[in-house]
């Protein structure tokens, strides 16, 4: 096999993995109950063997989704601040957080089983998310966009409350309204 063919296979495998992650994330977010591995493969347009080659178990798929979304949230804070004013970045970040919560809700059974494993990556998640929130809040304080008396812990608790009473995607409009009200309360008086 030539180097170009090998590179092509790697690119194809990467595309398949990315496609599987995107489809599985979307399916978990919209699911009343966890989707089957077979339905995820079918929706992604790949064979079940391709799914299992990338993710040998449902737990490995859920772990990959979880890690991917935490990474998107933590790096997303800085990326949003590069493009938007702090208050606008925070509002957009709250939507990303809502997407993460919605996806977690669709895979609670598997996450609960995984939480008992010492290999599960959950331990540092809260600290990483609080650091991302803190980055945006700090930028907002400096810019005068956000109140100085709100902590990252406060905001995390607010967000969990919002998405508890207005879970996405079912209550998308209500969640948006509550997040807009929250943002109004975060602006300096």
TrEMBL record:
The keyword Transcription regulation applies. InterPro entries: Homeodomain-like_sf, HTH-type_TetR-like_transc_reg, HTH_TetR, Tet_transcr_reg_TetR-rel_C_sf, TetR_SbtR-like_C. GO terms for molecular function: DNA-binding transcription factor activity; transcription cis-regulatory region binding. Residues 36-55 bind DNA. Residues 14-73 form the HTH tetR-type domain. Keywords: DNA-binding, Transcription, Transcription regulation. PANTHER family: HTH-TYPE TRANSCRIPTIONAL REGULATOR BETI, HTH-TYPE TRANSCRIPTIONAL REGULATOR RUTR. This is Transcriptional regulator, TetR family.
């Amino acid at each position: 096999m030539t180097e170009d063919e090998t590179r092509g296979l790697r690119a194809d495998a990467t595309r398949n993995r990315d496609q599987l992650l995107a489809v599985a994330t979307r399916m978990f977010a919209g699911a009343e109950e966890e989707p089957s591995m077979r339905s995820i493969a079918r929706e992604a347009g790949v064979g079940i063997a391709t799914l299992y080659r990338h993710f040998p178990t449902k737990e490995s798929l859920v772990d990959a989704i979880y890690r991917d979304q935490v990474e998107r949230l933590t790096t997303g804070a800085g990326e949003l601040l590069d493009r938007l004013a702090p208050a606008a970045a925070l509002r957009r970040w709250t939507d990303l957080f809502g997407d993460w919560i919605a996806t977690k809700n669709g895979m609670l059974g598997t996450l609960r089983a995984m939480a008992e494993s010492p290999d599960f990556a959950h331990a540092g998640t809260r600290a990483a998310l609080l650091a991302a929130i803190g980055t945006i809040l700090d930028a907002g304080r400096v810019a005068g966009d956000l109140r100085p008396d709100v902590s990252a812990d406060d905001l995390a608790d607010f967000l969990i409350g919002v998405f508890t009473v207005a879970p996405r995607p079912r209550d998308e409009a209500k969640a948006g309204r509550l997040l807009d009200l929250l943002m109004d309360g975060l602006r300096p008086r």
